[in-house]
Amino acid sequence: MKVLVVFLWILISNAVVGVITTCLLLYTAFWTNYYVIPVLYLLWFVWTWNSSRKNNFSWKTLRELRMWKEYCSYFPIKLVKTTELDPNTNYIFACHPHGIFAFGPFGCFATEGANVKDIFPGLSMHFMIHSIPLALPFREFLLSHGILSVEKSSFNNLLSTGAGKVAVVMPGGLQEVLYTSTSGDLQLCLNNR
C-alpha cells in the first residue's frame, strides 16, 4: 500500500495523469459516441479556471484518507513543531530542500499524513506549487488537497481571506530541482526569488 500511494503521488506531481487524462478526453471526444463527457469537463475546466489561485476546492475528507499515513510512513516523514503559532495570524512557511518530487512538504502540508492539523491547530495549510500541473486535466485532485498555484494572486487571495491561513512555499522551486544530487549535498536557490 505504501509503494502504491507513493507511486500515485509521483504520477500526479509530474503531470503524467494530466497528460494521460488529456489523451483520454481527446480520444473520447473524437473517436467515441461519448463526446459529451469531454465537452462537459471542458466547460467545467474553463468555469473553474481560477480555482488554482483561490481556496475554493479544498476537501478535508480527501486530505484525511488513511493512505496518506501510509505515504508518510514510507519515507518516513515527520512534522516537528518548534514554536507555538497564533491561529489569528497568517503565515508563509518556506521549505527546503525541494528534491525531485517534494515528497516531504506534500506529506506534511497537503495531507493529514503527518497530523498537521493536530500539530498546528486552527491553521489551514496550503502547499503552493508551480502552475503547470494545475493547468492540466485532473487538477481537481491537487486542488482538493488545498494546493494552490505559487503566484502573487494566489498569495493575495489566500492571505487576505481571514486569519489562520498558511502558504507553504519552496523558495528554490523548479530551479532547485536541478541542484538535486545523490551525493547528499544540499543547495538552496534564493537569488531572484
TrEMBL record:
Q: Report any Pfam family annotated for this entry.
A: DAGAT
Q: According to its record, what are the GO cellular component terms?
A: endoplasmic reticulum membrane
**Record's keyword terms, sorted:** Acyltransferase, Endoplasmic reticulum, Lipid biosynthesis, Lipid metabolism, Membrane, Transferase, Transmembrane, Transmembrane helix
Q: What's the superkingdom here?
A: Eukaryota
Q: How does it sit in the membrane?
A: Multi-pass membrane protein
TM ranges: 28-47
**One record GO biological process:** triglyceride biosynthetic process
Q: Where is this protein found?
A: Endoplasmic reticulum membrane
Please give the Gene Ontology molecular function terms for this protein.
diacylglycerol O-acyltransferase activity
| Similarity comment | Belongs to the diacylglycerol acyltransferase family.
Matching PANTHER family: ACYLTRANSFERASE, DIACYLGLYCEROL O-ACYLTRANSFERASE
What this protein is called in its record is: Acyltransferase
Organism, by scientific name, is Allacma fusca
